[in-house]
Amino acid sequence: xxxxxxxxxxxxxxxxxxxxxxxxxxxxxxxxxxxxxxxxxxxxxxxxxxxxxxxxxxxxxxxxxxxxxxxxxxxxxxxxxxxxxxxxxxxxxxxxxxxxxxxxxxxxxxxxxxxxxxxxxxxxxxxxxxxxxxxxxxxxxxxxxxxxxxxxxxxxxxxxxxxxxxxxxxxxxxxxxxxxxxxxxxxxxxxxxxxxxxxxxxxxxxxxxxxxxxxxxxxxxxxxxxxxxxxxxxxxxxxxxxxxxxxxxxxxxxx
Length: 255
Description:
Helices cover 35% and strands 21% of the residues. The protein has helices at 42-47, 77-80, 85-101, 109-124, 134-148, 205-224, 233-243, and strands spanning 2-15, 19-26, 30-36, 53-59, 68-75, 167-170, 177-179, 191-192. The strands form two sheets. A five-stranded antiparallel β-sheet has the order 3-2-1-4-5. A three-stranded antiparallel β-sheet has the order 7-6-8, covered by helices on one side. It starts with a strand and ends in a 12-residue tail after the last helix.
């Protein structure tokens, strides 16, 4: 059994003295693991940094075996973001979520394309003092990930009235939008729905916090909770990094 595909590195862990087990998100074969012999060496360690785009060849005697990889580095995305802690934290959080959320060996070509688009947005993010818009792209990516996993939010109309305007909240149980008018008196029981997730308006500090809280709630409840696992620590680190950067801090950022 063998195949060749493009892939993003999601995770790598040491196996024995010289090898690593690598988790990839491939274009056609989904999340797929394999053994990379010699992967603990200096040259290979640079190849298996999370987020890197690689050319992968997998081979095994039987289809259900772990198998082994041969990898060729196509684009060193991690190195490109190394000196920008915000976008780098977004990349690490995204790969950790995919590693924990996607079923193994189930094709998810849309997830591959979405991660590629997110990486492009992170790579294009401007340096200070220009406002960083990458958190918006990241929050929208998490929303798309929920939909790809079958837990998409219904933001098309109000669950109570059917209205398509004035949508301002989401039910934490049904994952359906609720209009501001229908939510009167129940606001504390609902999750704020920032307009930028509806492709309306801009995203200020509060909107970005609300957006990440919204997607985080459903990732925890629908994806990681049933497996009795918390959200990856990398996502908490992302929130901490974002919370220290403009516009969250309310200041124009570091010089």
